Amino acid sequence: MPLQYINEMLGLPELQLHKIVSMDTQDIHLEASPIAYKQPCPICNSEQDVKRDGRNKPRKIRHLSVFGRKSYLHIPSLRLACTRCRIRFVWTYGFVGPKQRYSRAFRAQTVEQALGSTSAHSARMQDAPASTVQRMHQDALPIESERLVEQAWREAKDSKVLVLGIDDFAIKKGHTYNTGIHNLRGETMLDLLAGRKLEDLRAYARQHPDFLALNPKAVAMDLAQAYHTWISECFPCAIRIADRFHVHGYVIESVQEVRKSVQQTLSPRAKAILKSHHRLLNPPVDSLPEKNKAQLEILLAFSPLLCSVWEWKEAFSQWYDCSSNVCIARLGFTRWLKQGEKIDYNAVRSALKTMRNWQDEIVNYHRCRWTNATVEGRHNRIKAYQRRHYFTRNRACYKAGILIECNRPVYRVEKFNR
Predict the structure, then answer these.
(1) 3-state DSSP call for residue 20?
(2) Mind listing the pLDDT tens digit for each residue in 242-277?
(3) CA 122 to CA 252: how far, in whole Å?
(4) How does pLDDT run across 139-185, given as a tens digit for each residue?
(5) Which of the residues 17, 152, 158, 227 has an alpha carbon 20 to 30 A from that of 284?
(6) DSSP state of 91
(7) Among the listed residues 1, 12, 5, the one whose alpha carbon sits nearest the alpha carbon of residue 106
(8) Are 364 and 238 contacting, i.e. CB atoms less than 8 angstroms apart?
(9) By the 8 A CB rule, do 26 and 69 touch?
(10) pLDDT, tens digit, for every residue of 80-129?
């Protein structure tokens, strides 16, 4: 293939290829030189008084693969001198940084693979040292994280109808937690703060005035009192929405508590059937295939109590889906509470008490129909990231990696080419 076409494949307009030095089944070595004869002086920015002053040992630069082979560019290290400023400097190439052996395009491709998996995986893909790829990854993390966070905050500030999502996830379950702040409409993660207690949240608000400068229409969160107190202090005019799926979880727990008590009273055969198919009681009946609907009817026939609490749970799902406005939602919620009062069981009474305490926040869902479903999806990505990176101990790298992981839909490789 003519060298001009190889040059176009490499995407390096500043270089001119001269010859193929060597080529085997794994590597290809290319000799190239700059197209221009001189470069401007770094002090006076003029080429008029610049002259060439010899050359140092040639540089060997690893570039993107060509024809399935690793490509290496052999380029001269030209010495230049400016007679006006009386300084000497070395030729600066745009496609590779000073004193680096890997091109910017190669570094960008390698870092992209590492962000999606691990540095070890990227090193195997590129056939490069793992320590080198790890160093590239660590260098790129703060730059890319800062870019994505700036873009996310800019979108949040410019949004006319901003809806935030607040939720926590575990670093070590039962011991250490982080709290994420999400832009639900923009589908981005704005920030990550350590802890989930009210003192931690208030300290974050004091240290980050940009957060208090936001003007959200609504904030979706679970039923943690600390979150609702914090949001009411920071954004008193925002609609506080109790997340639908967290609220629905209380009702499903009541159904399962009833199922466990009923299960103990059945014959061994019926007990085994109810235990093995207990998950059929959780989803709405309309979402089940016909085969599972038939199995569900068998489970409900085991106990009138189980059937009544399941119907109570189904009524709650219908209330969420069918209430057309807030007024109708309040009336429907009151009817649903009365329906639950007819069920004489401790778990149901406990759930009803919680629902009454949070009635306004639950009904607010029908003012602004947003949930934290996308936030829960990001939590799965965060958990996968923590497992891949073995719970990075450096807090700055840990935070930067999570922010990149959660905002990767807006990620672009060319942003690394700087």
Answers:
(1) strand
(2) 999 999 999 999 999 999 999 999 999 999 999 999
(3) 43
(4) 888 888 999 999 999 999 999 999 999 999 988 777 789 999 999 99
(5) 227
(6) P
(7) 12
(8) no
(9) yes
(10) 999 999 999 999 999 999 989 999 999 988 888 887 777 888 888 888 88
Q: How far apart are CA 359 and CA 300, in angstroms?
A: 29
DSSP code for 89: E
Residue 148's φ and ψ, nearest 5 degrees, are -65, -40
31-61 burial, b if ≥16 CB within 10 A, otherwise e? bbebeeeebebeeeeeeeebeeeeeeeebeb
Which residues, including other chains, have CB under 8 Å from residue 288's CB and lie 6 or more apart? 280, 296
Residue 197 confidence (pLDDT) above 70: yes
Render pLDDT for 50-71 as a digit per residue (tens, 0 to 9): 999 899 999 999 998 888 889 9
Domain residue ranges of the chain, discontinuous segments joined by +: 3-101, 106-243+371-407, 245-366
Between CA 280 and CA 252 the distance in angstroms is 11
What does DSSP say about strands 27-34 and 69-82: parallel, antiparallel, or unpaired?
parallel
Contacts of 131 (CB under 8 A, 6+ apart): none
Helices (H), 129-236: 130-158, 198-207, 209-212, 225-234
Alpha-carbon distances, residue 315 vs 223, 236, 328 (angstroms): 21, 32, 14
The one-character DSSP state at 26 is: S
Q: Spell 311-327 as b/e; 16+ CB within 10 A means b.
A: ebbeebbebbeebeeee
Average pLDDT, the chain: 89
Tell me the one-letter amino acid at 209. Answer: P
Tokens of residue 311, six digits: 């119907």
The 3-state DSSP class for residue 185 equals coil
Angle at which helix 130-158 crosses helix 395-406, to 10 degrees, equals 60
Which residues are within 8 A (CB) of 169 and not within 5 positions of it... i.e. 6 or more apart? 177, 178, 180, 379, 382, 383
Closest CA to 136 of 120, 156, 147, 148: 120
User: CATH number of the domain at 106-243+371-407, out of 1.10.468.10, 3.30.420.10, 3.50.70.10, 3.40.1170.60?
Assistant: 3.30.420.10
Residue 221: the pLDDT is 95
CA 301, 306, 310: angle at the middle one, nearest 5? 105
Amino acid occupying residue 66: V
Q: Give the N- to C-terminal CA distance of the chain in Å, as an integer.
A: 30
Angle at 140 between CA 134 and CA 144, to 5 degrees: 145
